[in-house]
Design goal:
Blueprint: E1 19-21, E2 27-32, E3 39-44, H1 63-75, H2 87-97, H3 103-117, H4 131-143, H5 148-167, H6 196-208, H7 216-225, H8 229-233, E4 240-241, E5 246-249, E6 252-255, E7 261-264, E8 273-276, H9 279-291, H10 319-336, H11 346-359, H12 364-371, H13 376-381, H14 388-425
Antiparallel strand pairs: 1-2, 2-3, 4-5, 5-8, 6-7
Length: about 425
């Protein structure tokens, strides 16, 4: 009769079936995943929970603790080994599933995958990632020079990938479900709206400058309509109704990294809207249409032609064209005038418009429609730039209104007394 020999660790403790201690001292548990029918492994530097983690080694669950988790997963019919894929493999799987996305989103996916390919974090197994590991990694990205907005975008892909792992029951918890403020410093530049004086001075300069005057109408329209720059670029002659004085916003003109242009739906369903023209905007569009050079061959992009704003080659102007025009014109302005202008971009034009409209007393729902925001919180929180001066003005208006009401109440009281006297005299 054969006698079974029990395995022991370096401390003389008897090891269970499937357990062994490697030559480097690390413990290993071998098991067959019933779902995948593959041999799988779990590792730890500790056998029991009470053991101390060797100096310089990562603090982790003990092997016995991991065994209990594995056994529980197997009882529930959950594949343990499926959660043994790397972070990079998980994100690639998530991206592969998300096929019906916009080209700009696809480019964002590629960026995140490249980051993970060149980062040791991407090689880690997802069932080893703790919330503290996720926070530490994002913090290291910021220390390495990545901006807050860039890390926000990276987390925006990695977090839903881990959420997918939880939904597939590979993981119990998503380690990326926490506010970024817990581990990052928000160093993103706040986009401030221009003051009325800054907008007035800038547009006056553009209108009178020999080179930049050709872009005046486009810049003026951005300031006075709040259009997204991609929406302005996508405007065609058919979208402008000079009789009804309306602008039909129904698409965007975007471009890929190789500057290849394409038509895309508006950013959200709320982006589809018809905007009324002010008299000044109406005149600007009349000038744009009348001065537009007739093309021998109209550029057609995804079935659309007759784009309003064209470059010297007769091709539709793209967002980066306008961004450069704003950049160069501000640089020229600041070389001439002592009182410099801040950075101005097409998006700051949009902020400026929204803030101006909000200060005018327009209803928030109307402003939400004009801006094409799907979420009214965006209108509230991002695009309205009220400052101390605005608060003082509002308080002053409130004070004047209260004084007027007091005066009116005195007048009303006097009139009431006179009316009462007349009644008594009858």
């Amino acid at each position: 009769m054969a006698v079974s020999v029990k395995r022991k660790d370096s401390k003389g403790r008897i090891l269970k079936d499937g357990e062994q201690q490697r030559a480097d001292g690390r413990y290993m548990f071998t098991f067959i995943d019933p779902i995948t029918e593959k041999r799988s492994y779990a590792y730890s530097w500790k056998l029991e929970k009470t053991d101390k983690t060797p100096a310089g080694k990562k603090v982790d669950l003990s092997l016995r603790e991991k065994e209990k988790l594995i056994e529980a997963k197997i009882r529930e019919g959950i594949s343990y080994s499926s959660g043994d894929i790397t972070v990079l493999e998980l994100v690639e799987r998530y991206v592969d599933i998300r096929r019906n996305v916009r080209p700009t989103t696809k480019n964002g996916y590629k960026t995140v995958i490249n980051v993970l390919k060149n980062d040791k974090f991407g090689k880690k197994h997802i069932n080893q990632i703790k919330t503290s590991d996720a926070k530490k990694w994002l913090g290291e990205l910021q220390k390495g020079g990545r901006s807050y907005s860039s890390i926000h975008s990276i987390r925006g892909v990695v977090r839903p990938a881990f959420r997918m792992a939880v939904e597939d029951e590979w993981l119990v918890k998503n380690p990326f479900d926490f506010p970024l403020a817990e581990c990052l410093i928000n160093d993103s530049i706040k986009r401030d709206a221009l003051t009325a004086k800054q907008q007035r001075n800038f547009l006056k300069f553009i209108k009178e400058d020999e080179h930049f005057r050709q872009y005046y109408d486009g810049m003026f329209i951005l300031f006075e309509t709040g259009l997204r720059i991609s929406e302005l670029c996508g405007l065609t002659i058919k979208d402008i109704d000079l009789e009804e004085r309306t602008i039909n916003i129904n698409k965007q003109l975007q471009y890929t990294g190789g500057k290849k242009s394409y038509i895309e739906k508006t950013k959200t369903n709320a982006g589809n809207r018809v905007l009324p023209m002010s008299d000044e905007v109406y005149e600007a569009f009349k000038r744009v249409i009348s001065s537009r050079k007739k093309q021998k061959i109209e550029k057609i992009i995804n079935g659309y032609s007759g784009f309003l704003f064209l470059n010297d080659k007769g091709n539709p102007m793209l967002a980066y064209h306008w961004e450069k025009k704003f950049q160069y014109s501000v640089e020229k302005y600041n070389k001439i005038y002592k009182e410099e202008l801040p950075k101005i971009t097409p998006h700051i034009c949009r902020h400026t418009y929204c803030s101006k409209m909000a200060k005018s007393g327009i209803s928030v729902k109307t402003l939400q429609y004009l801006m094409g925001h799907a979420d009214i919180q965006t209108t509230f929180n991002i695009y309205t730039h009220f400052k101390l001066e605005d608060a003082k003005n509002d308080l002053e208006k409130l004070k004047i209104r209260e004084e007027m009401q007091k005066e009116m109440s005195v007048i009303d009281m006097a009139e009431a007394k006179q009316a009462l006297a007349r009644v008594k005299g009858l």
